[in-house]
Amino acid sequence: QGSCIHDGTWKSAVHGLADQDNLRKLRKKIGYAPVPVVGAKLKRRGFMFYNQEFKKYSIPFMGSDASVVKRSQRYLHTEFQETPVQYGAYVNIGGLGSVIKLMFAGILFLILVKFSFGRKLLTKYPEFFSAGYFTKKGPTQKQMDGTSFTMTFFGEGYSEGQDPQNGKPNVKICTEVKGPEPGYVATPIAMVQAAVSLLEDAASLPKHGGVYSPGAAFSKTKLIDRLNKHGVEFSVISKPEV
Fold it and tell me: Transmembrane ranges (predicted)?
């Protein structure tokens, strides 16, 4: 029966984009040292491109995933001297018709979020401006039952003993995370299992208090094992040598 999302997420996107300049200023003020780039630099794909892996058009994912991953990598590199990973996030949008619709909707959205009047319109009429995808009621039970998510990760790196500064990556890996409806089913599963990890894996948590990204807080715990047992599945699809 299709899918839809509660307008709380829509409001987060509206106010998040409107405030992005202030976020940049805050990050600049903190003055973090750049995360080291090891090996070949990850190339950013264009604003819109044809994804050969999925035979669909894709765009950069507008969520906070890339920023959160970078924060995790900084922590793991600083605390455990782990080699930082470069990361980019993209979302498939389908065929050419979907591309045209998204372009018009995206341009309108980006213009409106810049003005307080535009933001009021967007938050007051989410269903109209999102073509029914975001609603004040949220999804029905049938919609949630019929929805799932899949995230596919394509990684490249270096085999044991090879110097990353010399030559191109020579090892590839493809992994996947999949589960039930992401907003209202998978998220509560993840939060409950994270809470269990806080209680049962205390010795594996960071030693100092503070605000941590999930990757930093739970990297040494059994959280992934717990998620696998409760319907959010992590798996390796392939590991071919280049």
Answer: 89-113
